[in-house]
């Protein structure tokens, strides 16, 4: 199939006059703009629209305008795959940004691979880039990196025995697994391991058990949605006097509002620069870019900027830089240029791709944040 | 020992939430044998409308009143627009209509409001109340109190008032009820309105604890329904006891066994009870005359 497709492609390119370097540069996207993952897809789609307008208003890439073709897959892997095929075969795009969720991303990867179209995913799972597939890249950091960031901070505070309370939803379960795998690298012993359902209203029994475990020094709560806010409130209700760590899944002002200033006081979590755009030191390499994106997005859409939109922002910047550098809109040349991306500063971190690293972020992409008086402070 | 107390308090808090939702099922069920799957949406509306009215500057009691009245309106509209036109349809069709209505309400809510998670402050602060070595949030007392009040109200309504008896009569035999002069159309409207009011009240009381968003209804309705089945569908006492029991079982399993098996343990108990007593703990023995 792959051979057939690439032969067809080669034949097509030999037959065409100057290849695809004619009119506009067509970029495709399939995102979960509606449905259960719309909190991801909605800001992502809006971000892409805004950035395309921006680039076109400034004269396009090397003088060529970008045409963005967006589809809404509603987080359905089948639809994502269909749309990927349509983007590749009917719309003849030169690159695809998309896959708001790990499920949709994994479903469309075989298609881009067979067609040889560069693809930048906006989904979290490590399985997207490990093992490395030649045409697939991604911008969000992985759960594993969040665990490592948290454990690094615990190590600095001299904490070695912790309890975990994880949501049983996809995000919490996956992060719990990643954390358990890397804990020993940081000399951390997980001596209590509790869980709760995504819709549970009270976690005091689990926290009571953690509290009663001998020698516990801190608690980590991988989870998403309302669970972590309830855990934080119950934590303060029970008067547990140990450091509480949350995950990057709840890194937003909404979390502080739900948990309440008092209960959230002192909670630490790994977050991106975008979240703390206003308090980043002026000499931080990301300061300029996150502030520019935040201002533009919030002005245009009158809603707070989110980390997820930031993933789309970074994917688009990487792609534009690669097309500029390649000097053509040939998918193969774009792919090679993306892989050569080095030191590109985005809202999520600084990207340096290589042949065996298609994520290109390191732990410095996360900032360790602490909640103080209902706002964020940088820990280091 | 403080652990046991904490598990128990947690169970009662969560159980009172389930009980409040379960109580909402009883009236419509008693009036028409229909299990109203949009009941969870009434709870959600109660919470969401209060959040937005409160956010718009209304004091909490007023916001709650607005939420309850709006939800009553939605409940009555549901009856007038969807249930009444399908009057001759079998109960199963009516139940499916309520499922459709719940999807509609959920969809409209996420457009009218948003998809975020919200809460509003607890009525009487967040300072934990120490209780035999364990702690309890003041809002839990409001929820437990609310569940008890609604229970007593419903109990008196069904056993002591003529209207309540008319509701029961309508469920028993609609034609016979009409023959003795009961306005059955009005009884249906009343029961949807009351159910919506109870649902919305539940939403107002539990939101500071459970938080709310456009999609909390399904989960709450499912647990509330399970509680109602456990206690005996249609019996307010069953709803109350079933809810509290379910909450306590969950908390004890999470505390002593494993939090992984919390939901499973609760449903195993429900299955076991229903095997032995198909009508639930307090359900009336049904005798069908032919």
Structure, briefly:
The complex is a heterodimer of chains A (380) and B (290). Chain A has 380 residues and is α/β, with parallel strands linked by helices.
What would you note in describing this structure?
Chain A: Pfam families: Peripla_BP_6. Chain A: Residues 1-23 form the signal peptide. The complex is a heterodimer of chains A (380) and B (290). By secondary structure, chain A is an alpha/beta fold. Chain A has two domains: 2-142 and 289-362, Response regulator (Rossmann fold, 3-Layer(aba) Sandwich); 143-277 and 366-378, 3-Layer(aba) Sandwich (Rossmann fold). Helix content of chain A is 43%, strand content 17%. Chain A has 13 helices and 14 strands. Chain A has helices spanning 2-15, 38-57, 77-89, 102-115, 143-156, 170-182, 204-212, 227-237, 253-259, 261-264, 287-301, 307-326, 331-339; strands at 25-31, 66-72, 95-98, 119-121, 136-138, 161-167, 189-196, 218-221, 244-246, 268-271, 344-345, 350-351, 367-372, 375-378. In chain A, the strands form four sheets. In chain A, strands 2-1-3-4-5 form a five-stranded parallel β-sheet, with helices on both faces. Chain A has a four-stranded parallel β-sheet with strand order 7-6-8-9, with helices on both faces. In chain A, a hairpin with a 4-residue loop joins β11 (344-345) and β12. The radius of gyration of chain A is 22 Å and the shape is elongated. Chain A starts with a helix and ends with a strand. The model of chain A is unreliable at 11-22 (pLDDT under 50). With 290 residues, chain B is mainly alpha-helical. Chain B has one domain (9-116, 132-276): Orthogonal Bundle (ABC transporter involved in vitamin B12 uptake, BtuC), CATH 1.10.3470. Helices cover 74% and strands 2% of the residues of chain B. Chain B contains eleven helices and two strands; from the N terminus they run ααααββααααααα. Chain B has helices spanning 2-32, 39-55, 60-83, 91-112, 138-160, 162-172, 174-179, 184-210, 216-231, 236-257, 262-276; strands at residues 129-131, 134-136. Chain B has a two-stranded antiparallel ribbon. Chain B is globular and about 60 Å long. The mean pLDDT of chain B is 88. Chain A binds chain B through residues 38-39, 168, 194-197, 199-202, 204-206, 208-209, 212, 225-226, 229-230, 233, 237-239, 254, 257-258, 260, 262-263, and chain B through 3, 6-7, 9-11, 13-14, 17, 115-119, 126, 128, 135, 137, 206, 209-211, 213, 216, 219-220, 251-252, 254-255, 259-260, 262-263.
């Amino acid at each position: 199939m792959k051979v057939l497709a690439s032969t067809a492609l080669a034949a097509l390119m030999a037959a065409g006059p100057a290849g695809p370097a004619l009119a506009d540069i067509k970029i495709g996207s399939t995102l979960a703009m509606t449905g259960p993952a719309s909190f991801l897809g909605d800001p992502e789609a809006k971000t892409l629209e805004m950035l395309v307008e921006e680039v076109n208003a400034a004269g396009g890439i090397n003088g060529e305008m970008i045409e963005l073709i967006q589809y809404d897959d509603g987080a359905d892997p089948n639809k994502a795959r269909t749309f990927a095929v349509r983007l590749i075969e009917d719309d003849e795009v030169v690159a695809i940004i998309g896959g708001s969720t790990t499920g949709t991303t994994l479903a469309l990867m075989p298609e881009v691979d067979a067609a040889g179209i560069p693809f930048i995913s906006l989904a979290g799972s490590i399985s997207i880039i490990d093992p490395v597939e030649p045409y697939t890249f991604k911008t969000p950091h992985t759960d594993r990196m969040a665990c490592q960031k948290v454990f690094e901070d615990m190590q600095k505070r001299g904490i070695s025995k912790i309890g975990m309370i994880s949501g049983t939803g996809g995000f919490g379960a996956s992060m719990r697994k990643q954390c358990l795998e890397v804990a020993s690298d940081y000399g951390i012993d997980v001596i209590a391991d509790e869980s709760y359902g995504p819709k549970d209203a009270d976690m005091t029994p689990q926290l009571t058990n953690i509290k009663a475990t001998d020698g516990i020094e801190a608690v980590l709560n991988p989870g998403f949605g309302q669970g972590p806010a309830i855990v934080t409130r119950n934590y303060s209700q029970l008067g547990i006097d140990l450091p509480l760590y949350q995950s990057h899944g709840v890194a937003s002002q909404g979390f502080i509002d739900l948990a309440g200033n008092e209960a959230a006081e002192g909670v630490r979590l790994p977050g991106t620069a975008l979240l703390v755009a206003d308090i980043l030191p002026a000499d931080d390499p990301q300061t300029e870019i996150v502030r520019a994106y935040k201002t533009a997005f919030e002005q245009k859409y009158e809603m707070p900027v989110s980390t997820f939109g930031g993933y789309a922002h970074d994917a688009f910047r990487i792609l534009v830089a690669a097309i500029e550098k390649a000097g053509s809109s040939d998918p193969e040349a774009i792919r090679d240029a993306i892989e050569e991306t080095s030191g590109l500063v985005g809202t999520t971190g600084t990207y340096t791709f290589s042949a065996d690293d298609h994520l290109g972020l390191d732990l410095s992409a996360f900032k360790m944040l602490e909640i103080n008086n209902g706002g964020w402070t940088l820990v280091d | 020992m403080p652990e046991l107390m904490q598990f128990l308090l947690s169970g009662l808090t969560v159980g009172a939430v389930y009980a409040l939702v379960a109580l909402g099922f009883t009236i419509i069920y008693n009036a028409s044998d229909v299990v109203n799957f949009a009941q969870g949406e009434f709870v959600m509306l109660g919470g969401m409308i209060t959040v937005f009215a409160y956010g718009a500057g209304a004091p909490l009691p007023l916001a709650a009143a607005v939420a309850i009245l709006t939800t009553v309106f939605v409940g009555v509209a549901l009856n007038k627009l969807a249930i009444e036109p399908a009057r001759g349809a079998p109960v199963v069709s009516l139940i499916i209509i309520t499922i459709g209505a719940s999807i509609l309400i959920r969809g409209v809510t996420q457009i009218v409001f948003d998809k975020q998670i919200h809460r509003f402050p607890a009525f009487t602060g967040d300072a934990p109340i120490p209780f035999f070595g364990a702690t309890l949030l003041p809002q839990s007392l409001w929820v437990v109190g609310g569940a008890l009040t609604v229970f007593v109200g419903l109990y008196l309504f069904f056993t002591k008032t003529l209207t309540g008896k008319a509701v029961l009569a309508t469920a028993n035999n609609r034609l016979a009820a009409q023959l003795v002069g009961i306005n059955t159309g009005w009884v249906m409207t009343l029961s949807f309105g009351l159910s919506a009011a109870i649902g919305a009240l539940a939403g107002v009381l539990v939101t500071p604890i459970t938080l709310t968003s456009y999609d909390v209804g399904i989960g709450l309705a499912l647990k509330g329904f399970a509680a109602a089945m456990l206690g005996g569908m249609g019996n307010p006492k069953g709803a109350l006891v079933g809810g509290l029991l379910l909450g306590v079982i969950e908390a004890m399993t999470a505390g002593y066994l494993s939090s992984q098996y919390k939901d499973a343990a609760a449903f195993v108990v429900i299955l076991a009870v229903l095997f032995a007593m198909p009508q639930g703990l307090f359900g009336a023995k049904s005798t069908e005359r032919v």
